[in-house]
């Protein structure tokens, strides 16, 4: 199969505006691209109408002792103001050895590379000494909906190693941070701004919670993880009140915490709950706290077999062998939650333009990663 065929696959799936939807259309293109093969099976797991996870199996993975998994997600984030883009975000424009569009780096280039690697090996009649499973998911950009679903259904259990094709900017990761999103809502009593004594200022009480949470989170933020550094804690959204001359009846903030393996998500959630409980003991305070999302930080052995194989494949294709850690979460966290001993490596084409205007991937990186994936499969399943 030529490089032109790979690029055409990538362009086709980039043209699907799978912004938290339409992943089934991406899956259709991928399944048509691979076609009917004697040793390959396809399964769809629906999350919602028009939103199907795609599982691609080679050589009956559930019957094998050695099974290599690949994971990628088929959704993308919203492109934002399309007038700011040099080229339309779903046109898959190629210019100056780059392909531009929403999802090029994050992460349709990674998906197209693993699918292309599989098709090329099948065309070359490679003998798979073990099983291969591709887990292509929906809804990763919102709350890893598809990975949660597939993990709960046991689709990661046969895997003995996992490659996640997220963009790693010429490195590979053996660990990455987790995430906690939370919402705190303060309830008060409205009153005329000239008579504040008749009301209860919800914004003031929300700030009391924030101060208490920062105080109680301080020891956690000071804890150093040898691989991932420090937990970070940020309030990223806040709103309250409805008129300048009225005491606000309600106020809300949302926070984003990036977690490390040294402090569990459960410990942090308990700390936030305790901060709310302490605040609610103050006169007339009422704070409701909800945990909106929680995904654990994960780490693997930096010298595992799969990472050493990935490094060898990188060397063979003039790609850096740098093994490091990342901050963004991936579907791997959900699969690791059900298979805690699963070794993994995050390795994919792409750069720091993910989620930005004029997101792109270079054709050179896309083709090199495709070759690296082929080499990894050949070495792991030879």
What does this structure look like?
The chain is an alpha+beta fold and 382 residues long. It folds into two domains: 3-176 and 298-380, Zn peptidases (Aminopeptidase, 3-Layer(aba) Sandwich); 183-295, Alpha-Beta Plaits. The chain contains ten helices and 20 strands. It has a six-stranded mixed beta sheet, with helices on both faces. The radius of gyration is 23 Å and the shape is elongated. 44% of the residues are buried.
Q: How would you summarize the topology of this molecule?
A:
Layout: H1 3-14, H2 23-34, E1 40-48, E2 51-58, E3 67-73, E4 93-95, E5 98-100, H3 104-123, E6 131-137, H4 140-143, H5 145-152, E7 161-164, E8 172-176, E9 178-187, E10 191-192, H6 202-222, E11 224-225, E12 229-230, E13 232-240, E14 246-247, E15 250-259, H7 265-280, E16 287-295, E17 298-299, H8 305-316, E18 323-326, H9 332-338, E19 344-346, E20 360-362, H10 363-380
Helix pairs in contact: 1-3, 3-10, 5-9, 6-7, 8-10
Cofactor: Co(2+); Zn(2+)
Enzyme class: hydrolase
Family: Belongs to the peptidase M20A family.
